[in-house]
Amino acid sequence: MAWNSWTRKAAATIGSLALIGSLAACGGSGAGGGAGAGGGEESKAPEDIKVGVAMPTETSERWIADGKAVKSQLEEAGYSVDLQYANDDIPTQQQQIDQMITKGDDILVVASIDGTALSTQLQAAADANIPIVAYDRLINGTENVDFYVTFDNYNVGVQQATSLLTGLGLLDKDGKKTDKKGPMNIELFAGSIDDNNAHFFWKGAMDTLKPYLDDKTLVVKSGQTDIQQAATLRWSQEEAQSRMEDLITAHYAGGKTKIDGVLSPFDGISRGVITALSNAGYGKTMKAGLPVVSGQDAEIASVKLIEDGVQYATIFKDTRKLATQAVEAVKAYAGGGEPEANDTKSYDNGKKVVPSFLLNSDIVYKDNIKSLLIDSKYYTAEEVKAGRSK
């Protein structure tokens, strides 16, 4: 496992410390200096540690839930929390992290907007002995990422494609192939190209769909089967709607050829796609009903659509569990140690393989909303019925 930033800093200062004969006097300004990770001092108490939490946006229900979960669990553990949202603006997030470092935040938990845009900030954090926990989105192109907490993102892509195949009747609910034959027309959407997760989702989904595309059971009439063609910048619902409208106009005009399914990697994208399809007459004036549309994040508005038979499925990533792993990583660094990883091979950010903790996710269909989302108290039955959180 790679050294964390505290250990790197300690190693870098050994020479100068030896010259003055005062190893015990070397204390960093951040958590590293007082947490026993190379500083030679006892661990700080939680109440003496401030954790900076940088989240990408409040425009997505999912990230609001993440921010609340991380903040509440850190505070329950005794830490003070500096939670900031950047409204999907890269310079804003850079400035927020700069300020966290300047203010003396001891440990940073960062869900990046652009995984390549924070190298300067993370170098400053490393210089100040501040450990960095990447949250759900890997930060690329820097050695100064100490740990990564996320879901098994390749498997999330597999699950998205599996839900699409199930909705099309090519797989049953147990994942077994059926006797249903094609050809069926599908279109493909990917996430934001600057988000490392989007590539894992895409690869998992495309590996799963490949046999059906190869034997022409599934046909992408637009021919747009490359992630660059399918990408949706910032996961934008509006951009997804616009692209779906263009696809319908160019390849499915007049309703002579219908769309049977759409691979969508995020519920906001799914809702944009569904709006475009509905405006084109799917599920209304056309004989064809709405296509099967996948999703991700179990946003309450989309869970309501699934309950109503409009969206077919979504992927549930329990942000409470992800927050718990982030808090466990913070506790490990605050105690002078390193978090426990369950994956030390998959996440290469271009400079290092980042030790990671991966969580599992679930496919949500109409018939398991209660067992997965309501019984677990993620949502109440009233919230699902209303399509909005309290």
Keywords:
14 helices, about 400 residues, 12 strands, four-stranded parallel beta sheet, elongated, Rossmann fold, alpha/beta, 2 domains, six-stranded parallel beta sheet
Secondary structure layout plus pairing:
Elements: H1 5-20, H2 31-34, E1 50-55, H3 61-76, E2 80-85, H4 90-103, E3 107-110, H5 119-127, E4 132-135, E5 147-151, H6 153-167, E6 184-188, H7 196-214, E7 218-219, H8 227-230, H9 237-251, E8 261-263, H10 267-279, E9 292-293, H11 300-307, E10 314-316, H12 319-334, E11 356-359, E12 362-364, H13 369-374, H14 381-386
Parallel strand pairs: 1-2, 1-3, 3-4, 4-5, 5-11, 6-7, 6-8, 8-9
Antiparallel strand pairs: 10-12
Helix pairs in contact: 3-12, 6-7, 9-10
Task: Briefly say what this structure is.
The chain is α/β, with parallel strands linked by helices. It is built from 14 helices and 12 strands.
Helix content range = 40-55%
What share of the residues does DSSP label as strand, in percent?
A: 5-15%
Radius of gyration, in angstroms, nearest whole number: 23 Å
The CATH homologous superfamily of the largest domain is called: Response regulator
What quaternary form is this? Answer: single chain
Structural class: alpha/beta
Stretches where pLDDT is under 50 for at least 5 consecutive residues are 1-41
Q: What general outline do the C-alpha atoms trace?
A: elongated
The CATH architecture of the largest domain would be 3-Layer(aba) Sandwich
Main pleated-sheet profile: 6 strands, parallel
**Overall number of domains:** 2
The main sheet orders its strands as 2-1-3-4-5-11
> CATH topology of the largest domain, what is it called?
Rossmann fold
SSE pattern: HHEHEHEHEEHEHEHHEHEHEHEEHH
The CATH class of the largest domain is identified as Alpha Beta
Q: How confident is the prediction overall: mean pLDDT?
A: 89
Number of helices: 14
Distance between the termini: 43 Å
Number of distinct beta strands? 12
